[in-house]
Amino acid sequence: MIRRMILASSLLFAAHAALAAPDAVALYNEHCAACHAETRLGGTGPALIPQTLHRMYGPKLVDVISNGRVATQMQGYSDVLGAEEIAAIAEYLKTPLAEVPDWGPDDITASREMRDDYTPVDAPQWSSDPMNITLVVETGDHHVSVLDGDTFEVLDRFPTPFAVHGGPKFSPDGRYVFIMSRDGWVQKYDIWALHEVGRVRAGVNSRNIAMSKDGKHLAVANYLPMTLTILSTDNLTVEKVMDVVGRDGTPSRVSAVYQDPRHDAFVLALKDTPEIWQVATDPNAAPVYEGYVHSHEKGMIEALPSSKGLFARKRIMLNEPLDDFFFSPDYRFLIGAARASEKGVVVNMTVGREIATLPLGGMPHLGSGISWMRDGRRVMATPHLKDAAISVIDMQTWKLVKTIKTDGPGFFMRSHENSPYVWADVFFGPHKDEIHVIDKQTLEIIKTLNPAPGKTVAHVEFTKDGKYALVSIWEDDGAVIVYDAATLQEVKRLPMRKPSGKYNVWNKISFSDGTSH
Ligand code: DHE
């Protein structure tokens, strides 16, 4: 009798358990928290809270959890979790947090940690060419290696904050470098002294950083909070935190911030509102007029200057938000695209208006675009994150010159003024172990390298003179391969922990044509 009762009650419990709703919080903590943090405020992955997810409500959120997200580290969970469990997590992500940190100037200031074991030096403490230093970001164990660009000797290897993303930014003299991680930490490192100077948390969930033309200010683009943080490069103190709100009152995440040396400004890509912002880095910037008032005194309509001087903000109004940018080398034009759109847009940055559209489907990755001279005309090229193709565009007519078919969608492209070739990785798909080498004049693939079969091979950076090309084997037990950029022969292989981006001091501070800035 007792056995029968136990059996009945355990059957009842099992039936109840089967009917009970999945425990979303437990599932989240088990499967999502490692990247997005238990607080849901973001780590290697973005923050997962209503403020940052509102565009994904509905089936899309379930779709991303089930199938992953192209061009990101987000994998699909449909083979690990059931439909109900995925739906429960999606529902949980829509729940507002009890409290979202403001992360204003006081929080940023409180997070600032300057190293008391750092002593400034008068000159490099090593004998390599300071202009030919190349940094390698090793995401496998969150370090940066400092390479001598002539001998490829590792001069230092220092720990970085968690999940560095985007290019580190050098001071104009190449002496300091600033490195940002997705969880908002910004680190300052002295290359001459081979020593960290300090770090500060500029945002909760951040995208990238940009250096001002004069090297005095560092802007940090934030998703959370929806702000731009501007730091003093000298001591990492807060100079300004700008709330990012569109003209119509819509708060917006900042997808990215860039330096625009022509107009002496930071340029902001806004994710949620159809505007681009120019934020002056020139202390004498002219007043920006953003509205008009009726002056009773003067009996006329008077323009209302909203800001002037350092950090004056100018809005460039668009037809739709653009979140991925490429700039012409003279910074007269910005070429932008929205992730979901089938076209690119050309914006004249001096007059502040859209002037042309480009046929660019397949999710172009304009951030990796490069430009060069071909038959006396400047062309630009961009890979596509969804198509096995590279688009080459004439920058005078804004017409497509050629679609180069590749072995799979790529992420990064690189060249150098002294190289006749463009290097383009095949980041996604079965050919992720390939790098195409393309002739800049014929636009033909002249060679496909496959240095580590089966492993992801990606991102190229040249040495200062363009003689060598450095390629990452993007694996935990990976390497940086040094190629002779003319003969395309391997010269050296340096073991590294999941090396991602590589950044040559000279190529960056001289705004080399073939690289990102
Ligand atoms: Fe990046 C640069 C945006 C996913 C590695 N990435 C950039 C820049 C932007 C950007 C706007 C240029 C800013 C700069 O360097 O100052 N990246 C995005 C995305 O929107 C996207 C697609 C989705 C996301 O979650 O952010 C994305 N990026 C990735 C990755 O998954 C990569 C491969 C691995 C990682 O570290 O997250 C990645 N992104 C990089 C790297 C650069 C970069 C290595 C710098 C390239 C350079 O040479 O300058």
TrEMBL record:
Superkingdom to which the source organism belongs: Bacteria
SUPFAM superfamilies, A to Z: C-terminal (heme d1) domain of cytochrome cd1-nitrite reductase, Cytochrome c
Coiled coil: none
Keyword annotations from UniProtKB, A to Z: Heme, Iron, Metal-binding, Signal
Leader peptide range in chain numbering: 1-20
Gene3D superfamilies noted in UniProt: C-terminal (heme d1) domain of cytochrome cd1-nitrite reductase, Cytochrome c-like domain
GO molecular function: electron transfer activity; heme binding; metal ion binding
Domain named Cytochrome c: residues: 19-97
Keyword ATP-binding tagged: no
PANTHER family: DIHYDRO-HEME D1 DEHYDROGENASE (PTHR47197:SF3), PROTEIN NIRF (PTHR47197)
Protein name (database record): Cytochrome C oxidase Cbb3
Lineage: Bacteria, Pseudomonadati, Pseudomonadota, Alphaproteobacteria, Rhodobacterales
